[in-house]
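chain below, 784 aa
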Amino acid sequence: MHCVLGPGNGLPATLAEGLALALERVCQTVDGIAAPAAVLWTDPEGQWSGVIADLRKAIPQICILGDYSPSDSTGPAIWLRCVVERTVAVDGMPAEAVPILYLPRVSRQALRAASDCPPAVLPLIELQYRGRVWHQRNGRDWTVDAFVMSEDGLGLDVAQDARTREAMQRALPLLLATPLEALRGRRLDADDFDRLAVSDPARDMLRWLGAPEQVGKSQDEARWKAFCNVCKTEFGFDPDRKTPRDAAKLLIESTAHKWPDAWRRFTEAPRMYPGVVEALREAPTILIPLPGVLERIPKLNAEKEEELRRSLDEVDALPHAEACARVLDLEAAHGTRRSWVWAQLGESPLAEALARLAELASMATSPAGGANIEAAVQSYVDGGWRCDKAALAALGSLQTPANAAVVQKVVRALYLPWLDASARHFQKLVSADEAKARDAVEAPEVEDDACIVFADGLRLDLGHALRERLEQRGLKASVGHRLAPLPTVTATAKPAACHVHLRFKGVGAPDDFTPVIEGTDQPATAALVRQQMAAAGIDVIGTGDPRPRTVGATLGWTETGRLDELGHKLGADLVYHVEASLVALADHIESLLNHGWMRVVVVTDHGWLLVPGGLPKIELPPHLVGTKWSRCALVVGESTPAVPTYGWHWQPGARLASPPGVGSFFASTEYAHGGISPQECVVPVLHVEKAGGAIRATIESISWRGMRCRVAVKTDDPSVRLDLRLSWKQPDTSIAAGIKEVGSSGEASLVVDDNHEGAAATIVLLDGAGNVLDRKPITVGETT
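prediction:
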């Protein structure tokens, strides 16, 4: 989905931005999973109807179920289906955008229960399977008050009385573009929302300037006269005698009267005033603008952006030190434009990318160092990874081909020399003491009651990014590190990430660097390793099946993530899929914790190198090696390639060739691993648990007396609750007379109606948020 958003971080600045962010999250997918065909926005009470038309200015892909009126993006269900299938065009909707179908007077429940769905909506029912329904975490439709108060929405503290809800509904059109900062940090009531309706000269001026035909004299003569009187008093401007073009000129150049207030209001939510943006572009040229109003001139920003483009295009021709200095100079000259309104409107993309480029330039002047392997690893862990983070962020900041090409050239010029020097230094240390480097490779430390999550290709910088996203969800996460074995390919490195219950060894010199499992002498394929884990008592969990651990298991193992697969497939374009991959990984971890695992330990196999334009090509005659990959090759017999060689981790007698620095044995390789560099060898280990400590709770015994079920629970939290469900995942399938808290006794009884005797059901143990901590299948009325 491509919602039109302002920049801000954290809480949304306006209701319009909050809705856009929430709807954008619904559309996020990982690569390999198809984007939803549409997002269905159900609104059974029609609470959002009054703002949908205005909201389309910020989110142009919204289409509305109603009478046929294409100019208003409104039509019946069949027309909406045509929009989804792209057989009709909608004005203003980006070609790649996911359509958002607003369905007033339709509930999510009605869509799910097709038999009760209104006939006019029936053609849309199947879209809930090809698309997504936007709803609260508890499955309910988003009401206005729920969205305003939810942390997934605006996060405001609002009184929950009927009068406040009515006032909030009345104020909704005004709330759409009202800055929310003044409303945060206190309890809001009806009076607070009613005050929004009081005349606001700055807002009224912007509304007239952007849409004079809608706010003009012909609409309401009395209100027009009042508006003109306010404008004369507050702005020294008479709309009866002057034009919107005159007002646009004053909005740019005037620092008198209330014009600065109007400008501030515009900059807080410029997307809500598209007509103002156009008026400013058409305003008369100011010959000698005052310094304080330069940021208001759209033409000046466009000229500065083109000037920056030319300067960046010349950076790659400079020596490395001069290139870094040049980028820092450009940041000093152009960085301030990120605070201009034109950046919010997406008209300063290179100035936005410059922030990341300047961060990269400041760190790329000194390669990662260290007098020995331990010191070099610590140097990278202490901050060297931030250079990789800045490079990825810069590459992912722009998606239009022209802008991306410019930034990729600059990233290569700044990053590649630092990357190569860091790798050569690290390789020198490893070559000096291979045995010490090999001995430093250890399995990650894992405590009991933990589920190990293997995330393929999770580099150290992305490990820190994952920690940030987990902490934003209220989870407690820490990042440690370990060394990956050589070569840094999955076949060799993944076994080293497995728990110490399994042992591996090298036999001969296999082409794919796969060790064997001790005791079986069979290659350590993924399927066999999982089979051996299960035999050792480890609970092996499928990626799509986060669940409580099997009774008696003290450890879990699950695999997820496609970063490495995507990197090999997409090269430098991997940067556009990193965020969705991290979100999916965070979802998986959070789900495991919500299903009762005490803690999660995230491990990986290896990191990787990524350089736009490709790694430097290193020649390696094919007759000297067997298997040859981008960053490693198996040396044949007693051959002596003219590149560094190292022992295979699992069998040091088998030798592998590795290109010096960040070279590649293949040309035009943008993404690669298998060699020796801090990025490939120093990998993260994350320990994650719920903030405040995880709840320990298990079902100990179940007994029946008639239709009363007594359950004994072992827990350190007496507030955990018991329920009895026909489907353990679905709260609405409960057949208990009531959910019962365990209490200090550690026991609770559930009463079931006679009609359910003999039914297959599940006892579920829940925490305060309704997450399943443990479950046991039973037959109603039958003690097992």
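The first strand starts at residue 39 and ends at 43. The longest helix spans residues 401-432.
thats it, cya
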